[in-house]
Amino acid sequence: MSEAKVCGTCTLCCELLVIKELDKPENRVCEHQNKAEGGCRIYGRHPASCQSFRCHWLTYPAFDDSWKPDACHFLIMQPTPQVLVACVDTEHPDAWRAEPYYSQLKQWSEATLTARGAVLVYVGADVWAIFPEEDLLLQDKPEGALVEAGYIREGDLRRPAAMLKTADGDVRTVTGGLYRELQPGEPAGQTQDSL
Question: Rounded to an integer, what distance in angstroms lies between the CA atom of residue 26 and that of residue 19?
């Protein structure tokens, strides 16, 4: 049996995630983070949300050490069974585009084709909705806003779309190109114009 993974000196979640109990907003270093040595200065008394959080590197056996958040500069989490999120270290905003990470995100995004899931990449206040065909950017996401990704059907064609909904009811939508439906086993990414 393999050894259980441990955070060690990785504290990227302490920088990127909201910690409501400490009034810590997203993308701000927690005041209790021990950056020099790794870990938390109030470990043992740290909030319940911190105690229960487990990034995908810790819980997903197929991830080797190259997927550890302090190595790849982003962490993967699954806030709901249908949504996979990559939260990226803002000091390394393009880390998610490196291989093998980008190809894996694209592969996971195929769940969007059948409305079984969505893949989102958070880089500071920007959110990328990842689709097999293309990536859509929603800029300047207000804290607490919700992001949804899926397809708009137009006859026998589909268009990737990402929507941002703010707490006060504002809605922003970004759409991509027009694509024909896929036949079983056919690769994604063919635009209507290129066929």
Answer: 8
**Distance of alpha carbon 43 from alpha carbon 50, whole angstroms:** 10
User: Model confidence over 151-164: pLDDT tens digits?
Assistant: 999 988 999 999 99
Cα distance between residue 61 and residue 64, in whole Å: 8
53/24 Cα distance (integer angstroms): 15
Backbone φ and ψ for 51, nearest 5 degrees, come out as -65, -35
CB contact set of 57 (below 8 Å; sequence gap of 6+): 5, 63, 67, 68, 69, 75, 76
Under the banding of pLDDT at 50, 70 and 90, the label for residue 184 is low
Query: What's this model's pTM, rounded to 2 decimal places?
Result: 0.87
Residues 77, 60 contacting (CB under 8 angstroms): no
Q: How far apart are CA 190 and CA 195, in angstroms?
A: 7
CB 188 within 8 A of CB 151: no
